[in-house]
Specification:
Helix content: 25-40%
Oligomer: single chain
CATH topology of the largest domain: Rossmann fold
Shape: globular
Low-confidence stretches: 1-53
Strand content: 15-25%
CATH superfamily of the largest domain: Glycogen Phosphorylase B
Number of helices: 21
Radius of gyration: 25 Å
CATH architecture of the largest domain: 3-Layer(aba) Sandwich
Mean pLDDT: 91
Number of domains: 2
Number of strands: 20
Largest sheet: 9 strands, mixed
């Protein structure tokens, strides 16, 4: 109690130093509420008088990538699609902030307008911040320019990623007066944007114009949390040591943990994954924080951009088709077999498009790969990842030439040809926050076989129970092999297989339902104190 009293007195003293400025403002501010975290107090919530009613709800997305500008994974698909779906509602003003990476193509750069520049504090440094913008699908995108941080190939993987995304996150708060846009909700995604929520509730919360902004933090993959040494909290992130307890977790800075604590609400990308991350098996050490804040947690299943992934209009396909008329899918399969130097045969083509890492279930595949290839099937794989997996599958391709096509690459055009030309899509993930590949494959009438985890469980239901694919529950390679055999046997019954293909292709994976769920979450976030 004595410690809490001392901290409250310190906060009140800080407020008094700004009393002259505050007296000039009409905002009525309630007292700062302090809560203890890891034995150190920090401002949890600051409320002011109700903001004036606005014609539109203003949402500012903060993310490190978004299609069509820059993409390395599923996050880019979400940030490219969800704002677009929300912007169709005229009661919302949706905007997005991204880094201006060197890898953004010139065609997109030529569409951008230069708005000007400011200088952004990064701890003791003051860094140039150029601001560009363009409109894509009814959504205004802002791009943060600093060549020291972003004029380099690739988005991630540098020794100074902490500083790069500290600059980016701080820039988001600093450009608000510059672009004259103070959102109702700051919607931050994954650890690269976590500091936006943290800065909002530490450095900026004492500024009246920021006090009504609520924070929503979305976890796309809890494995990557933004962990750094505690001794750089001031020098790199520019955050007072007073807030050490907020950022510290298991002896180091953990940006994801702090963003969860700072945000009025946090979410993840499927209902099942929201429950899974409460356990040690899936939370990568954050289960205690997740459970502590479980009352703030929501799981909303991602959708896909059904306009982009439309077999009736997709120019990457050998031939267009639709759920109503699947006849041209046979052309896609035949031409894919020719392209990948596989015999043109009426056998099930089993495909995988995946990062080659362990949590994608590749150990399951390795255990029974030769059992699968002894069947009358063809196997197609596209992806890059761990060196050991790349070498293993290359060897499989060499040994089973004419039955297996192994493509160690990241190739968007080829991926669409595989989605449309394959018969069965295998996705045996050990963990999968949401997964988009099973939805994309379904859109192209390719039947998914998945393990029941995360978003795979929420999106694919077993054929035997009237569902839209084949599923297995345990991390057992022979359970996977069993349901693959079920799928291969059904393939022989052309009438039933075509009926399943049509059911799979007409499953609604659009953003319409998910966008409505996010609107409910935004309303809950605005009501939270």
């Amino acid at each position: 109690m004595a410690r809490e009293k001392t901290i409250k007195e310190n906060v009140i003293t800080k407020e008094k130093t700004n009393s002259t400025e505050k007296a000039k403002r009409s905002t009525k501010i309630k007292r700062v509420v302090i809560e203890e975290t890891e034995n150190v107090a920090f401002p949890q919530k600051i409320a002011e008088q109700e903001p004036s009613v606005s014609a539109k709800k203003k949402i500012l997305f903060v993310a490190s990538e978004a299609r069509p500008f820059i993409a390395t994974g599923g996050l880019a698909d979400v940030i490219g699609s969800l704002p677009k779906a929300l912007a169709e509602d005229p009661t919302y003003d949706i905007r997005v902030v991204l880094p201006l990476y060197a890898d953004i193509k010139p065609d997109f750069r030529r569409r951008m307008s230069y708005l000007g520049n400011i200088y952004v504090p990064v701890a003791w440094r003051s860094q140039y911040c150029g601001v560009f913008s363009c409109v894509e699908s009814g959504v205004t995108f802002y791009f943060i320019d600093n060549e020291q941080y972003f004029k380099r190939p690739n988005c991630y993987g540098y020794f100074d990623d902490g500083e790069r995304f500290a600059f980016f996150s701080r820039s988001v708060l600093e450009i608000m007066p510059f672009i004259d846009f103070y959102p109702d909700i700051l919607h931050c995604h994954d650890w690269q944007a976590a500091l936006s929520a943290i800065y909002l509730k530490t450095i900026y919360i004492h500024r009246p114009e920021y006090r009504s902004i609520r924070a929503l933090f979305t976890i796309h993959n809890i494995e990557y949390q933004g962990k750094y040494s505690l001794d750089i909290i001031e020098d790199l992130f520019g955050i007072d040591k007073y807030y050490t307890g907020l950022l510290e977790y298991h002896g180091c800075i953990n940006l994801m943990k702090a963003a969860i604590e700072c945000s009025e609400r946090f979410s993840t990308v499927s209902p099942t994954y929201a429950n899974e991350i409460k356990t040690a098996q899936y939370a990568y050490g954050l289960q205690d924080i997740i459970c502590k804040n479980a009352n703030k947690l929501t799981g909303i299943l991602n959708g896909i951009d059904v306009d982009s992934y439309d077999p009736a209009t997709d120019k990457a396909l050998f031939a267009q088709f639709s759920a109503e008329d699947l006849s041209n899918k046979k052309i896609c399969k035949t031409e894919l077999q020719k392209m990948l130097r596989l015999p043109v045969k009426d056998v099930p083509v089993i495909a995988m498009i995946s990062r080659l890492v362990s949590h994608k279930g590749l150990e399951l595949v390795k255990t029974v790969a030769e059992d699968i290839l002894h069947e009358d099937v063809q196997f197609v794989l596209l992806g890059t990842g761990d060196y050991g997996y790349e070498n293993y599958f290359r060897e499989i391709g060499r040994r089973y030439e004419g039955k297996a096509s192994i493509n160690i690459a990241f190739n968007g055009d080829l991926s669409r040809k595989i989605y449309s030309g394959a018969d069965i899509f295998l996705m045996p993930s050990v963990s999968e926050p949401c997964g988009l590949s099973q939805m994309i494959a379904s859109r192209y009438a390719t039947v998914p076989v998945v393990r029941e985890t995360g978003g795979l469980y929420d999106s694919i239901k077993p054929y035997g129970a009237g569902g839209n694919g084949f599923t297995f529950a345990s991390c057992n390679p022979y359970d996977m092999l069993y349901v693959l055999h079920e799928a291969m046997n059904l393939y022989k019954n052309k009438e039933e297989w075509e009926a399943l293909m049509k059911k799979v292709a007409t499953t609604d994976f659009s953003w319409a339902h998910s966008a409505d769920e996010y609107k409910k979450l935004y309303n809950d976030t605005l009501k939270a104190f």
